C-alpha cells in the first residue's frame, strides 16, 4: 500500500449536545494517491470523520496529520479547511442560478483569462460536462450537478478530494459511471480520494482501502476483498454482504458446530444441489432478481437465503439438498 498522506492519531470528537455521538479514539492512515472508502451505517460518524480530516472541525483530543504536519481546525484559519483538501458536500454547494461554466471557472483567478478558460474546459471535458457549460446549474439533473460539484472541487488542483455520500442523488447506472470517474480521477490526476458511504457496493467496487466505522469507532480496515472474504466482525460481514446470521444452536441444523456465538453464511456460500449427503431444506419463497434468483429455505425452523444462478427456477414447497461451502464464526 502507498505511503500515508493523512494520519489520525487517537482522534476523538464528542458533540456537546449529544454526548453519545461523534467519533472516539480513531487512529487510521489514508494512503496517498489511492481511493479510501469509509463505510458504516447511518450515524456511525462518517461525516464527522470527514470534517475532522479536512480541518472543517477540530478534534477534542488527538491529532490529524497531513504529510506529517498538523491539520488546523476552523478556529485557527480565516477560511476553514486545509488548502490541499477539497470537500464535495452532500448539498453540492453550487451557485444554482449561475451557468455551469461560471460555477467552475469562478474558483480560478482572473490573472490569465485564456488559461482560466482552457483549464475550466479541460476539467469539464474530463468529467464529461463540457456540453453543459452554458446551462444553469438549477436546470441540471442530480448526477450532472454532482459532476459540477466535483469539477469545482478539483479545478484548483487539490491533493485530496473528500466526498460525502457522492452517489446519494443518482440512479444505479449513473452511480457506476461516477464510481469509474472517481477511480479515473485518482489514477490520472494522482488525487487521493476519501469517500464516505453507507452503501457497501461503493467500497467493494471502488476502494483501494476500506475503513469500517461503527458508533464512532473504527472496527477494521483493509482491502475490500480481504474484508469481504474474511471479515473480522459480524458488523462488517452484515454491512458488506447481507449474509445469513445464525446462532450457534441454529447452525447445528447446517451441520456446523462452533464454540463461538454466531455463524455468518453468505448467500453465495450456500450450495444448492441434490447430493445424497446434503441436508434437505424446503423452499419457502423465491425472489426473481434478474440474472439470478434468491431462494428462501427452511429446515426445522432455521431459515437460510441462497442464490440460484442456474437456468432453472425453484418453486415454493420444493425440497432441495443444501450444503455449505464456507462460513465465518464470531
Ligand atoms: N452538529 C451536531 N451536533 C450534535 N450531534 C451531531 C452533530 N452532527 C452529527 N451529530 C451526531 O453524531 C453522530 C454521527 O453523525 P455523522 O453525521 O458523522 O454520521 P454519518 O455516519 O455520516 O451519518 P449519515 O450516514 O446518516 O450521514 C450521529 O449520531 C449524529 O446525530
Automatic annotation (TrEMBL):
Pfam families: ABC_tran. It comes from the Bacteria. The keyword Nucleotidyltransferase does not apply. Keywords: ATP-binding, Nucleotide-binding, Transport. The keyword Flavoprotein does not apply. GO terms for molecular function: ATP binding; ATP hydrolysis activity. Residues 6-240 form the ABC transporter domain. Gene3D superfamilies: P-loop containing nucleotide triphosphate hydrolases. This is ABC transporter ATP-binding protein. It comes from Arcticibacter tournemirensis.
